[in-house]
Amino acid sequence: MTGLFSCTQLRAEIDRALTDSLCNVLKNTKDPAQKLPVLLYLSQLYWQKPEEASYLKELVDLSTELDSLNYVYDGYSKLCRYYFNDSQLDSLIIMKNRLDSICRQHSVTPPVFFQVRNLLCKYYQGELNYELAISEAFKLLNDAKKAQNDYALMLANQSIGFAYQAMGRNKEAVVAYRKGLEYLHKLKDNPIYEIQYLSEMLPSFLDENLLAESRQILDRYNELYQIASKIFETKGIPYRSIWHRWLFNSYYAELYMKMGQLDKAGKYIKEASKYTANSTEENMKYPYYRIKALYHLKTKDYQKALEEIDKGLDIEVQPNYLKLKIEILRADGQKANAIATYEDLFALDAQIKTEAFDRQISQLRLLNDLNDQEQQTFELQRQNDELAMQRQLVRMGMWISLLLLVLLSLLVCYFLHSNKLKNALQREKDSLVELEKQLQIAKEKAEETDRQKTAFIAKVSHEIRTPLNAIVGFSKLLGEEDDFYSEEEKLEFAGLIKSNFELLMAIVNNILDLSLLEAGRVKPAIDAYDAIACCREVIEEIKHLILPRVRLTFIPPVEQYMLNTDKQRFKQILINLLGNAAKFTRDGEIRLTFEIEPNLHQIRLSVTDTGCGIPIEKHPHIFDRFEKVNEFVQGAGLGLAISLLIAQLLKGSLYIDSTYTSGARFVFIHPIGLTNQ
């Protein structure tokens, strides 16, 4: 063990040193063509490892750039093998399609073109997707026929035979294998591949009781095994001797059992047992158990026959194993167990037939497609014949066509020149029309701006006139003789002058705020403030506006909540909303609510009153400038318009809740985490 371990370590060190050396060569090589063999050798050092795929992709890209087709084919072939062994179907199909594209581009069909298709067939067979396996095999067969390539025809028939064998259709498998074997014999002598081919086709020939032909195949198999062993021994490479010795001994045993020569069958079973005793390969043991069970049945040792068949069923349940078990149970007189096994067989048979039906439907579609392809090929051939007949007529009309072409060229030049002038005139016309449209739009915008300006001045004049008239009127009254009005009346006049002055100042301030906000000249001063404290300050500021029969309530969810906001603008919105509620609420309640919505990164403030409410038809215009619910209520109708602009300035929103019908409810959304940016 120590020596073996040291050898393994030594081999690993050699591989690492070789890899490092090749990586340095690759790094220092400037000629791209010289990098190709280095990349190929590096990929071989990382067999079925991710590094292999990386080096092969680099090899394919570089060889494609250099148009070195042999390296391109070799790279794609090895990549397809890598993805096949790694069970990456999508990547296998992508590499296959890229190789197909290159082969079509260069009009060649190298061996790898067919080998990759054969890999795809085997992948589908391994996944038990026999319909796709058959479909790909027939595509391979069609391509092989077009290329008239014996190697490809052998691969295609082998794939078809293997798929039919897996489906239990051994009669069709035998036909395909025979055709493939004919093409194999036409190729250069290759005992290694022929061994693999013969070992694969033997089960179908034995199952169909083609005993004489099976004997010939087995004898040839044994002969090829001796040749291959010497070849590998000469090269110093270990060969799969255990596998092949087990295989042809097992098949010889089955052949002699079918021929009724049990003595010879027993000898070959004993010989095969030598190679399966220490093997862990289930694909070796599975058919071996069936052959041993069949032998013990023939020799009427039913107990051993049942033991062997159960070992096989523990690995995989197949109909032929269940049938053999039923035969053993019946021969042993175990009718109840035979009936139970029949039920298992019927259930499995129903499942297989259902799957087979689905596969047959797919195959019928495939055959229909193939027939359509043959018809299309026939139609294409007919069209080619007609085309050949017409070529002579085309040659005869060539001179006439040239003359007509010259005339046509002159006409085209004239047409292009005329069309160019026409297009220039059309472009000029279009530009004039577009300019006229722009002038019309500019005129309409100017007229609209002038109209809005006139309406704005009219509304401002109207709103300012009322408090101004009151100030002037009461000022004149105060200017009368001292004894004409009492001191109480004069104080009342002074109070009215003050209130109208405050109203006038509020209108002017609102107009200034509105103009600055609409012009985008207001920048919020964001800082951290206690939003709850701000709400309480606003409550205190507007308390004097609340009528005696109205309750003003504010119940915060927390005692303190720090919020990044512009305190002045934040309070301005609440003052406007609560002030409006105070104007239109004669009795009942005005309620300010504060809700924290962390999931939405926002807070929600709402002002709800039980006043006269706002008609639903006025909801879309309630935030317009100078829009008033009641023209006889004091105010300019600018508060909500300003509040909406401030809410948008603070990256929030303001809207009226149309679902609330017991008064009016305005909702102000303020984001959390606001900054000065």
UniProtKB/TrEMBL annotation:
Q: Which residues belong to any copy of the Histidine kinase domain?
A: 459-674
The enzyme class is transferase
TM region(s), chain numbering: 396-417
- Which Pfam families would you find in this protein's record? HATPase_c, HisKA
Q: List the catalysed reactions.
A: ATP + protein L-histidine = ADP + protein N-phospho-L-histidine
Gene Ontology molecular-function annotations: kinase activity
Q: Which UniProt keywords apply?
A: Coiled coil, Kinase, Membrane, Phosphoprotein, Transferase, Transmembrane, Transmembrane helix, Two-component regulatory system
Using the record for this protein, list the coiled-coil segments as residue ranges, or answer none. 418-452
The protein's matches in SMART domains, at most eight in alphabetical order, are given as: HATPase_c, HisKA, TPR
- Reported EC number(s) for this entry are 2.7.13.3
> What name is this protein filed under?
histidine kinase
> What lineage is on file?
Bacteria, Pseudomonadati, Bacteroidota, Bacteroidia, Bacteroidales
